[in-house]
Each structure stands twice: as structure tokens, then as C-alpha cells.
Amino acid sequence: MKNNLSNIKKAKYYLDKNECVGIPTETVYGLAANAYSNVATTKIFRLKKRPKKNPLIVHYHSLKMLKIDCEINNFFYKLYKRFCPGPITFVLKLKKNSKISKNVTNGKKTLAVRFPKNSLTIKLLKNLKYPLAAPSANISNRISPVSKEDVKDEFGKKIKYILDGGRSKIGLESTIISLIHKPEILRLGGVEIKKIKKIINYDIKYNTKKKRIASPGREKVHYSPEIPIRLNVSEAKQDEAFILIKKRKLSCKNFYYLSKNKNLKYAAKNLYKTLRMIKKKKFKSIAVEKIPNKGFGQAINDRLLKASRF
Ligand code: TXA
Ligand code: MG
Q: Which domain holds residue 245?
């Protein structure tokens, strides 16, 4: 490959050769490959050490291309018009003649799709003849990456190229909504439930107790820095990293603010970055102060709870 190619062309070069490439999105970085190719998508599972039964999200830039692969309905249209491109993923019915690789869906008849909001990735998608399957670019169950450096941390030289789009603006994965039967939230994320309710005028639920097949982030351990985490803590121990969301006077030195004034959107953006930093500093344990369980706080608590099951 010529060295003077633009970054988009470099990414396209490897993707066209059925290789995996790291791509920036507004939520987290993705490990992308041609969603129509069995060869390319197999590589995603191998690199991430991801169980084959866990399906992938496919990234599009146009409705025209989406319609080749999926059935769409009114709920989808309303949400698409309001939030896309943006941090929302839809689970839709796969068309019989769709070109999506069976690896992506694990042979199932539904597909998770998303329109990412990052100018480089949108430009890349416009230059490709296929959509991109892209789970978060981390080894399974570990912390999701929010920068090119984080992706490098996870895979080193095992991936050919990472498209550098700066730090992810939202810093937390997309909200997943299933539109297969009644609208149902499968994962909390970048779009708050109350905003979704307003657009579709439907009292949509997020039920954490219900068991679902292949539902996102339901594995016991997830998003984990592989260090014990204690939640709802008011005073940390001497040698613990202490995560806080509002400013306070402290006797210990090892504290990390997600926000200094309980700004939950800002705290969500800083969560993975902070967990990764604490892990690098080789702390043996993490304490987290109580985070209000509303809006983005709900998504933060969901991730922390899963991370704490290490
Ligand atoms: O923000 C995001 O959504 C990021 C960026 C890269 O787009 N992607 C992401 O992908 O978080 P991943 O694979 O880490 O999480 C997607 C989740 C998986 O846990 C999977 O179980 C679920 O989506 N999923 C995929 N296809 C599904 C389907 N057809 N039905 C239900 N859940 C599905
Ligand atoms: Mg993930």
C-alpha cells in the first residue's frame, strides 16, 4: 500500500481486503469489517475472543443501503428522523435476500443496525460498497475504547489500521432498542429513554430482570477493568482509587472525578477513560461514590454494576 494515501483510503484498502480496521464513532471505537463477508467477520470474533453466538451491530450511512438488508417500520422512521446519525441502535427484521454474513447474526432473523455520527467514519462508509459490522474495539468483557490509543492498548499490532477520529464525544455505547415486536430497550446508552418515549409516544420499558437470548451486555462480567469495584461508597480505603461525581474535600490522594458538579452526561463521557487510567496505575481496588440513578446515571450504574462482577 502507498504511504501517501489519505486515512480514509488506507482504511478502505484494508477493509476491501477483508481485514479488520479500528473506526471512531461518537459512542466508542469499533472493530470494523465488511458485514457481507464471512471471511472478514470471522476475524472480528477471533480478535475480540467473542463467543460466536453474540451477534454484531452493523453500521450504515444511508437508508437506501439499510433497506437492502432490513424491514423498516413507523417506529423506526420516527426515531431515525430524530436521532440519526447518533447513539441509537435498532434491532430490525432481516430481509430474506439480505447480503449480511450469517456470522453477524449467528443465523438469526434479526439485525442490529446503527448510523454512527463521526465525520470520518461517515466518509469511510460512503466510500465502501458494503456496511460495516463493528462491535466495540475491546477484547470481550473488557473496557470499551474511546480513543485510538485505547484500541492500540487492546489489540496492539494484531489489527492492520486504526482510523483516528479523536476522542469519542459520548464515551458510552449506543442505546439499543428492539423494534421486532413492541418497542423494547435492550441496553441503556447514549440516548435517554425519556427522549425515545417522547418521539414514539409509547411507554417503553427497560426490564433488567427478563431473560433474553443474545441480549447485550448480559454476560455476568462486562466492561471490566479486571479489578474489584465497590459501589455506593462514601469513604474509600487508603489504597483504593476513589471515583467521584462531585467536588468534595478528601483526606486520601487517589481520587478521580468523573464530573465535579454531578453532570451525568459529562460523567458518562469520562467513565471508560477513567477506568482504563486507574487500571494502568495498577490499583488493586476501586471505590465509587453513589451515582444518581436517573438519565445518563442509569447507564453509568448499569456499566459499573457489570464491571463490578469481576
Ligand atoms: O455504540 C455502540 O453500539 C458500539 C459502536 C462501535 O457502534 N458498538 C457496540 O457493539 O457496543 P457491541 O458488539 O460491543 O455491543 C452490541 C450488543 C451486543 O452485546 C449484542 O449482544 C447486541 O448488541 N446485539 C447485536 N445484535 C443483536 C440482535 N440482533 N438482537 C439483540 N441484540 C443484539
Ligand atoms: Mg462491547
A: 229-307
Q: How much distance in Å is there from the Cα of 216 to the middle of ligand 1? A: 6
Our answer on whether the CB atom of 25 is closer than 6 Å to any ligand 1 atom is yes
Whether 241 lines ligand 1, by a CB cut-off of 6 Å, is no
Name the pTM for this structure.
Answer: 0.96
Amino acid identity, position 94:
L
DSSP secondary structure of 216-277: TT-SSS-SB-SS-EE-S-SS--TTSEEEESB----S-S-EEES-SB--HHHHHHHHHHHHHH
Same domain, 105 and 240: no
Structural domain ending residue among the three candidates 182, 200, 218: 200
Query: Predicted confidence band at 218 (pLDDT cuts at 50, 70, 90)?
Result: low
User: Total domain count for the chain?
Assistant: 2
**CA 140 / ligand 2 centre spacing (Å):** 7
Q: Are residues 163 and 238 in the same domain?
A: no
Q: What is the CATH number of the domain that holds 179?
A: 3.90.870.10
The strand pairing partners of 131, in sequence order, are none
Residue pLDDT, tens place only, 35-80? 999 999 999 999 999 999 999 999 999 999 999 999 999 999 999 9
From 92, 101, 106, 173, mutation site for ligand 1 pocket: most ligand atoms within 8 A of C-beta: 173
Q: State which of 200, 218, 242 marks the end of a domain.
A: 200
Claim to verify: residue 148 and residue 238 sit in the same structural domain: no
- Cα–Cα distance for residue pair 241/282, rounded to 1 Å: 10
Radius of gyration of the chain (CA): 19
pLDDT score of 209: 61
Q: Is residue 215, in this structure, part of any structural domain at all?
A: no
Protein residue whose Cα sits closest to atom 18 of ligand 1: 216
Binding site membership of 41 for ligand 1 (Cβ less than 6 Å): no
